Amino acid sequence: MSTGKVTGMVAIVILLLVSPAAGSRDTGPIPGEPSSLNSWFQANVKPYTQRNGTLDPALETAEAKPKTIMVRKDGSGDFKTLTSAVRSISSGNTQRVIVDIGSGVYNEKIQIDKGKPFVTFKGSARSVPTLTFAGTARVYGTVYSATLQVDSDYFVASNIIIKNSSPRPSGKLKEQAVALRIGGDKAAFYNCRLVGFQDTLCDDKGRHFFKDCYIEGTVDFIFGSGKSLYLGTAINVLADQGLAVITAQARNKEDDTGFSFVHCKVNGIGKGAFLGRAWTERPRVVFAFTAMSSVVDPGGWSDNQHPERDRIVSFGEYKCKGPGSNPSGRVKFSKQLTPQQVNPFLSLAYIEGSKWLLPPPN
Fold first, then answer.
1. Pick the CATH number of 1-30+207-220+228-244+255-354 from 1.20.1250.20, 2.160.20.10, 3.30.70.270, 1.10.10.10
2. Residue in 100, 185, 212, 220 annotated catalytic
3. pLDDT at 16
4. For residue range 29-78, what is the model confidence (pLDDT) as tens digits?
5. Angle, CA 354 vertex, CA 182 and CA 22 arms, to 5°
6. Residues near 139 by beta carbon (within 8 Å), at least 6 away in sequence
7. In 10 A of CB 253, how many CB atoms?
8. 202 has which bridge partners?
9. Closest of 227, 220, 213, 201 to residue 276, by C-alpha
10. pTM of this structure
11. Which residues of the chain have pLDDT under 70?
């Protein structure tokens, strides 16, 4: 390959990685020191009462007079099921509705339609409720197999376990089983556990924020066309049987989407797991300040047997650590980023968070 071609390929990768920063107004980059994360978050994501006039107008209206409804399996709340609680919310809702969920296991397939924004699912950190269902692609189609499917904007979840209880895929067709599908814009997840095997989290579309979460799976278990920031999140890979891939980001053409993982931890069972694969032509995934165990394949990334995608994928890493982060064995189409290249992914500006992101509910 000629020097000119190599230079052109590098330029393409840099352009694809840096482009999200254009027009950003957010400030306060995520610090490199993990001990500073909480203070950084508190300084950059203040409560609604301190943000008047800076948030999306519709969100400010919704947060002004929040309403709480209680779900308790024993009948002591307003509803016994999440399905009935969601059904009670009016279509075209303009008010924040906090669904306070009591402890226990809720075996339901829950859908929040696009016309019901400003919904919060809140559990207790001391007794975290579990939402579970055994939906599969064979019955519902992949993305619609989700235990919790959210199509509305401004959704928040805190202290919730969301699980797809279908068995581990055996290799047959249509065994994908989604725990959570988030298709609404401007959604935040705090201290949530997402549990499944193949396709656990469908980060479908929109801007999303995950903090202090746990995501477990086997193949493509964080996938979709979302533009999301994952902060301080534990990723547990079950790589002990067959192919294991963490991300299948679905960016095509020049879409402004991608996944940014910052101060995360990649652990698991087995070896040979890929950080991501080129499921589509131009996936964009960055891991920064992330600890990677030996579960990660030395090559790091896969072009999904499409070598023609090597020159246009955007797979980047920055100051990661641990035995799975060694750059010496990485595939040539991935990139160890410079500070300038990674900066757009180390800011709430990546998801325009200053306009909508709020702290978790008390």
1. 2.160.20.10
2. 220
3. 44
4. 999 999 999 999 999 999 999 998 999 999 999 999 999 999 999 999 99
5. 90
6. 145
7. 8
8. 181, 223
9. 220
10. 0.93
11. 1-27
- 220 is annotated as an active-site residue: yes
163-202: pLDDT as tens digits: 999 999 998 999 999 999 999 999 999 999 999 999 999 9
CA atoms of 340 and 71, how far apart (whole Å): 47
SS3 content of the chain, % helix, strand, coil (to 5): 20, 30, 45
> What residues contact 224, with CB distance under 8 A and at least 6 apart?
201, 202, 203, 204, 205, 248, 249, 250
Map 245-276 to HEC letters: EEEEECCCCCCCCEEEEECCEEEEEECCEEEE
Q: Where are the domains of the chain?
A: 1-30+207-220+228-244+255-354, 65-191+198-204
Between CA 51 and CA 59, with CA 56 as vertex, the angle to 5 degrees is 85
Dihedral angle at the C-alpha atoms of 155, 159, 162, 163, nearest 10 degrees? 170
CB within 8 A of 113, min separation 6: which ones?
91, 151, 152
Strand partners, 113: none
- The two tokens of residue 19 are 């482009």
